[in-house]
Amino acid sequence: MHRRALTGREKVLGQDHPDTLRSVIELGVALYRQGKFGEEEIMDRRALTSRETVFGQDHPGTLRSVHQLGVTLYRQGKHDEAELMYRRASVGRERRALGPEHQDTLNSMNMLGEALLDLKKYNEAEATIRRTLVGREKTLGLVHRDTLISANNLGVALCKQKKHYEAEEMYRHALMGAERTLGRHHQDTLMCVYNLAGALHKQGWHHEAELMYWRALGGREKILGSGHRHTLRSVIKLGAILHDRGKHSAAEIMYWRAVADGAKYLGAHDGLTLKSVKCLVMFLQSRASTAPNQVPRSR
Fold first, then answer.
1. In sequence order, what DSSP letters do the residues of the chain get, joined into one string?
2. Residue 56: is its pLDDT beyond 70?
3. pLDDT reported for residue 299
4. pTM for this one?
5. What digits encode the pLDDT tens for the residues 5-32?
6. Which of 43, 52, 111, 199 lies 20 to 30 Å (CA to CA) from residue 165?
7. φ and ψ at 247, to 5 degrees?
8. Which percentage of the chain shows pLDDT scores above 90?
9. pLDDT (tens digit per residue) in 231-276
10. How many other β-carbons are positioned within 10 Å of the β-carbon of residue 286?
11. Angle of the 164-181 helix axis to the 187-202 helix axis, nearest 10
């Protein structure tokens, strides 16, 4: 239907008519819903070219297409190209079109920060996400969902730079806000719980980290199911903290579970399943080489 509408409008109105452009965008949305991201990218690029021709480089509509193309590229794992689009959208929206505190500007900055994290540009990611967080706190408030996402993302950027204490503070802030705004069992809340557990684990606070990992696992099992990637990551991390606390039998159960569930739900050759196998092998080797009376210290 969308393709037929586009073809008809191209024939009658021309390629750069606003109604034709609307059909291009609608077809792109339909392709996204079908998971056809490669075809969606073609439509997004076409929409961008048309808007550049009709409106110019810095028009809000053009920059909307720039941002959308970044989203489409990011979905396909094309993080380098996505970074360029998000950077262009951020700069254009901030300096020329909308201003630094407009929500579209902050959305582009947020996505730029996430792309930088994936590209391991952690220092720049931290600076970008801090700016986004400040803007969202000012315009949306401390406990808005978008603000809390930025707080969590800042925690990730800090953790990647081994600033674990600062990361812990951000995760606690994000968790408190998420519990208040979204509830204890929302996916975003459980993400904050999981990330907080990681920051605590890195600092050696194993008792509280274990409690947080159990909570993340229980919530994710209930909401996402046993075979979801987030659930399986929680199982692996719980195995690691149990191992570090000297609870070897419980740790082994977790690692075997991660391997079995990974193979069942994701397939034997999936990256997360293979990671589970590697963790299990390393655990068994470590346990075999550890004297019975050697128990790791834990706080």
1. -HHHHHHHHHHHH-TTSHHHHHHHHHHHHHHHHTT-HHHHHHHHHHHHHHHHHHH-TT-HHHHHHHHHHHHHHHHTT-HHHHHHHHHHHHHHIIIIIS-TTSHHHHHHHHHHHHHHHHTT-HHHHHHHHHHHHHHHHHHH-TTSHHHHHHHHHHHHHHHHTT-HHHHHHHHHHHHHHHHHHT-TTSHHHHHHHHHHHHHHHHTT-HHHHHHHHHHHHHHHHHHH-TTSHHHHHHHHHHHHHHHHTT-HHHHHHHHHHHHHHHHHHT-TTSHHHHHHHHHHHHHHHHHHHS-TT------
2. yes
3. 54
4. 0.85
5. 666 566 666 677 777 777 778 778 888 8
6. 111
7. -95, 70
8. 78
9. 999 999 999 999 999 999 999 999 999 999 999 999 999 999 999 9
10. 12
11. 160
Tokens (6 digits) for 299: 């706080």
> Euclidean distance between the first and final Cα of the chain, in Å?
62
CB burial string 204-222: b at 16+ within 10 A, e below: ebbeebbebbbbbbebbbe
Asked if residues 66 and 103 have their Cβ atoms less than 8 Å apart, the reply is no
**Length of the chain measured in residues:** 299
Residue 10 structure tokens: 């191209």
Give CA–CA dist 224/266, Å, rounded.
14
